[in-house]
Amino acid sequence: MHGKVDALIVGAGPGGLMAAIYLARFKRKVVIIDANASRAALIPESHNLPAFTHGISGVELLARMKEQVAALGVQLVEGTVDTLSGETGSFVASVRGTNIWASKVVLATGIVDRHPPMKDWVSAVAQSLLRYCPICDGFEACGKRIGVVGPLDHAIGKARFLRGFTADVVLIPIDDLQEGSMVAKTDEAEVQTTAALARLEKRDRQIVARLVDGSSAEFDAIYAAMGSEVRSELSLALGADHTAEGFLKVDQKQQSTISGLYGVGDVVSDLHQISVAFGHAAVAACHIHNELPLNYA
Questions:
Q1: How far from chain centre, in Å, is Cα 262?
Q2: To which H or E segment does residue 81 belong?
Q3: How many Cβ atoms are within 10 Å of 57's Cβ, its own excluded?
Q4: For 117, what's the count of Cα atoms within 13 Å in the CB-facing half-sphere?
Q5: What local confidence, expressed as pLDDT, does residue 167 receive?
Q6: Does residue 52 contact residue 36 with C-beta atoms inside 8 Å?
Q7: What is the per-residue pLDDT across 45-99, written as a single tens digit (0 to 9) for each?
Q8: Is 256 helix (H, G, I), strand (E, B) or coil?
Q9: Contact call for residues 130 and 141 (beta carbons, < 8 A)
Q10: Mean pLDDT (whole number) for 265-276
């Protein structure tokens, strides 16, 4: 980890690993910091990535990509970045007491989902009983009985979207059902509503919603619409511009308002898709390569 690198990539999810693949193939010196906290690792099986006809798990996808970056000679350091400081051409990241100097920095730190009240939510995700992204796997919900859990104003959009895949969609608010336009939208989309949620439980191959009024309902799957926390602490500390929701603001080249600091994937976009992260990474890596001094063979 000594010496200066062309690019430091923070985060070893799909976006960070794709940026590393591009930059390594441009013969740039790259280091990735991997906290082993990629949201993609929770995906039991993705069916919307090209070429994987029968799907691929998030764990397997990350393993294949890490194998690829290792073959390209990219150094992957396990740990978290404690601090990130500096300015254009001279960034310094502190990792486990060691400093790494970098000309460019790519933040691929992602988001952390807020989870509904459920003790064993991890195993429920692994069994596809608890889901987070209908864009990713709404197709697999076709014809099933689906529940959507979250604050009414946030969950209604996801519930309406899922009505394109199944007629049996139930909105389970975590707050009191409100009158007015939100209720009108559920009626318009023919989305049923229940009393507020108390907790979720697994039962065999179904998931049970226990409601505050003492009743319960069973579903083939529950979609959480609880929002998320953006892992943007490092860029906030540097003073880069962010949206009200905490997403790092970037230009068309994925560069933030701080020159040399880039963002890819979920840290900059609320369209949480692996393919989107791949595209961001390709754009950022090409711009970084062109901004660095030429490296003639």
A1: 16
A2: none
A3: 17
A4: 13
A5: 94
A6: no
A7: 999 999 999 999 999 999 999 999 999 999 999 999 999 998 777 999 999 989 9
A8: coil
A9: no
A10: 96
Query: Angle at CA 147, nearest 5°, toward 146 and 150?
Result: 150
Nearest by Cα to 6 from 117, 106, 87, 86 = 106
Cα separation, 186 vs 182, in Å, equals 7
| Residues 45, 57 contacting (CB under 8 angstroms) | yes
- What region does 142 belong to: left with phi over 0, alpha with psi -120 to 50, or beta? beta
User: If pLDDT is split at 50, 70 and 90, which confidence band does 204 have?
Assistant: confident
The encoded tokens of residue 84 equal: 């990130």
Tell me the C-alpha to C-alpha distance, in Å, between residue 214 and each of 155, 199, 230, 280: 22, 11, 35, 47
Give the side-chain half-sphere CA count within 13 A for 78.
2
Give kind and range of the element (H or E) at residue 3. Answer: none
Q: Choose among 108, 106, 135: nearest CA to 43.
A: 135
Structure-block tokens of residue 75: 């150094």
AA letter at 171: L
